[in-house]
Each structure stands twice: as C-alpha cells, then as structure tokens.
Write a structure and sequence with these properties.
Blueprint lengths: L2 H11 L4 H5 L6 H18 L2 H17 L2 H18 L5 H9 L3 H14 L2
Helix pairs in contact: 1-4, 3-4, 3-5, 5-7
C-alpha cells in the first residue's frame, strides 16, 4: 500500500478525522503519518481513547501492509514521536497506549530507543 492508498484507508477507518484530512494536502508518506501522529497527540491530551485506539490500529495496519516508504515514515516519524506524545501521561495511560501497538511496532520502538542510547 502506498501513501495515497493509506490516506484513503484512514478516511474510511477513522471518520472522526476526515474533515481535517480533507483540508490537508498530503503529498508524501511522511505527511500522512505526521498528520495521523499529530491527531493522536491531541486525542491523548483529550483522553479520547476510542478514536486513539482506532488510530493505533490503523497505524499497525499501515505498517503491516504499507510499502517501504510508508513503513519508513512510520518508523521515522510516528515511532520517533511516541515518547513525546506520551510524555505527560500517567504511567498507566502510557502503558495502555503502548499495549495497543502491535508486537512488530513494539519491536521497532525498542530497537529505536536502544539504538539511540549508544
């Protein structure tokens, strides 16, 4: 799946963010992943877990089905932003968010965190 297909998938799976997405010009995999990540940051702050969980599930789907460029965007944008997104959450809320990531994205996160500590 390329970024254009990913954008269409997001509009179907997460109708709550469709209006904002329609007002945004998406021209690369990074732009769609950054858009979705920014939306998740807002949902985390607003404690909107229903929509947040839909977004996390869609991010997992995009990582599993996406082409190399979509996967790179998820690894380099979303995964990199996770700590920032959850910085002011309680430990329980943060753990709940991370528990919703697929095992594959959890591995990517761990690999990224440990590679930066070198």
């Amino acid at each position: 799946m390329n970024y254009l297909q990913a954008t269409q998938e997001i509009t179907v799976a997460i109708p709550e963010i469709c209006d904002d997405l329609k007002q945004t010009t998406i021209q690369s995999p990074y732009e769609i992943i950054e858009f979705l990540t920014d939306k998740m940051k807002v949902m985390i702050r607003q404690n909107n877990t229903d929509c947040l969980f839909k977004c996390l599930q869609k991010m997992d789907d995009l990582y599993e089905q996406g082409d190399r460029m979509v996967k790179d965007a998820i690894e380099n944008s979303f995964i990199y932003s996770l700590d920032n997104c959850t910085a002011f959450c309680s430990k329980e809320y943060r753990d709940m968010i991370f528990s919703r990531l697929s095992p594959e994205l959890q591995k990517v996160y761990a690999r990224q965190i440990y590679s930066h500590s070198i």
